[in-house]
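Lab intake sheet, docking and co-folding queue.

SAMPLE TYPE: protein with bound small molecule
LIGAND NAME: adenosine-5'-diphosphate
LIGAND FORMAT: SMILES
REQUESTED OUTPUT: full 3D complex as structure tokens
PRIORITY: normal
SUBMITTED BY: R.K., bench team

The fields below were copied directly from the construct record.
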Amino acid sequence: MGKVIAVANQKGGVGKTTTSINLAASFAATEHPTLIIDIDPQANCSSGVGIDPRRVTASIYEVLIGDIALEDATCSSDMPFLDIVPSHINLVGAEIEMIDVMERERILKNALAYARRKYDFVVIDCPPSLGLLTLNSLTAADSVLIPVQAEYFALEGLGQLLNTIKIVRQHLNPELEIEGVLMTMFDTRLRLSNQVAAEVRRYFGAKVFRTIVQRNVRIAESPSFGKPVLLYDATSIGARNYIALAREILLNNQRYLQQPEETSEPVSDTSRPASNRNGNGHPESHSSSTPANGFTMR
Ligand SMILES: Nc1ncnc2c1ncn2[C@@H]1O[C@H](COP(=O)(O)OP(=O)(O)O)[C@@H](O)[C@H]1O
Ligand SMILES: [Mg+2]
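RESULT FIELD (auto-filled):
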């Protein structure tokens, strides 16, 4: 069974999308089949991996309103082990359309059963709000990863997010864990960054990832080329930071990755990760049922 990680913080511009893309790409680089779900109407995650959201005809929107299954909205990416369910601007209206649906907070969770079997990791890029889309993500997820920008007011609003997590645990998803708090856009030259990091560690203690993502121009440039930073400049500090983050999370999650191979049923064609449904094929090796554990890129 794969692990579903929601990347959430209701503040905009803290690095949710950047983290979703580059963490997922780093898992994929280590041959862990990984799915990104872009659930933000801004669709930055989709364009960040090279998908033009204006040309998408099957997106997370159609999945949430019950028109299609998640696998029918799944596209491949330029990386063999990385797929994405793109977003669409129509998603803006989804929260209103979902209001009358029974169990409206569980729509994504129910749609995800397929992906949990097919991928080692599902990474959900949440919108900058605590509305129904984020609630669906937190209900579907095993854990939440909270990016925090190394800036003044970094902790502002986090109480509200933690309160939402508490409510989700009480009513919708008792198993929801905090995967970790990630310091992003850290500027090693600034005393401010260190002060903020110290404050975040005081507040969250051991929940803060040891890995810190530095401010790095390659990270900021790569989305305009439709690529994760790993494909844009694999030697950049940004690429190395996100590989380190993936490694830290992999080490923390060995139990999710230990598949009972001998006892599991043979993988049939219909149970392979969907690819190509939106026209963008990828190699067959993608659906390997024996992912290698070693890192293939540095
Ligand atoms: N480590 C980083 N170094 C430099 N720029 C970054 C970094 N992380 C994010 N950015 C930039 O900051 C902006 C906001 O990041 P984004 O991931 O879109 O935040 P969010 O999804 O939380 O709104 C984007 O322009 C992105 O390219
Ligand atoms: Mg975003």
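REVIEWER NOTE: Confidence is low (pLDDT under 50) at residues 261-298.
SIGN-OFF: pending second check by T.M.
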